[in-house]
Structures are given as C-alpha cells and as structure tokens.
Amino acid sequence: MIRKIIRLTTKYICCNSIFPLLLYLILVEILNYTIMNTATWIIQGILAAAFFMAGYMKSTTSIEKLNEKMSWTKDSSSGLIRFIGLSELFAALGLILPMALNILPILTAIAAAALVIVMILAIATHMRRKEYKEVGMNVVLGGLALFVTIVRF
User: What string of DSSP letters covers 98-141?
Assistant: First the structure.
C-alpha cells in the first residue's frame, strides 16, 4: 500500500527532486511508529490481563487457599500478600487506562516501571527460597514490562 502511494507520488513529482525521498522517509517513519505502537498495545494488554488476574487472586482468595497454590505465601504475612495483590491490580489498570483515555499517559510508563520493580523483588524472593522454576515467568513478565516502560517514556 505504502509502496504504491510512493510510486504514484513519484510519477507526479520530478524524479530529480528530493520530495520523493522525503515522502518515502516520512511514510516509513509513520509505518514504523504504527507497528511499534500496535505491538506495545498488545504487550500492555497481555501484561494487564496477567497482572489483573494475579492481583485479583491475591487480594480476594483466602490465605489458606493461597498457601496451597503458592508456597511463598506461607512465609509472608496476609497484609503483604493483599498489598501485592492490590498493587498488581492497580498496575494492571495503570497499563491501560491512562493511554486509552489520554489522561496523563505518562502514568502508563510509571505503572510498567512499578511492575518491573515488583518482578525484580519476586525474582529475588524465589531465588532466596530456591524456587528456580518460578523465576522464568517473572523474568518474562519483567522483560515485557521493561519494554513497555522504555517505549512509553
């Protein structure tokens, strides 16, 4: 589509002119921005869904049931578990709402940065408890959150 526009445009503008080159560069930049923006929105949606579900579970499920599902909760206070759950819930909302509503969109980058910190702390907790199988998901989610942070700042 873009190449067709460029070909049609160059027919009408002198070939020795710099205008076709400038038009091409502008269209490529727009296309790159659109692809990157779309990819970032998809990643934000995945992160928001994952953290919303995890946060909802940690903030509403009984501590006894959480102890069965997640071994690290046995060594943590119920207040800390609920705090982590609410933090993940608010961060999930912060990944989507500010950019979608165009109200202080910088909050999206701040929410993503907060999730990077949460994932670093989760990695440290799992490493300390020698739960190496749990670290992989934290690394992936933290890396995706770091990507969102960099792109949205």
Answer: HHHHTSSTHHHHHHHHHHHHHHHHHHHHHHHTT-HHHHHHHHHH
Residue 7 lies in a domain: no
Please determine, for residue 90, whether its predicted confidence score (pLDDT) is greater than 70. Answer: yes
| Residue 21 is assigned to a structural domain of this protein | no
Domain count for the chain? 1
Residue 11 has pLDDT above 90, yes or no: no
Query: Taking the complete model, does pTM exceed 0.70, yes or no?
Result: yes
Residue 56 belongs to domain spanning: 37-152
Please say whether the beta carbons of 88 and 51 come within 8 A. Answer: yes
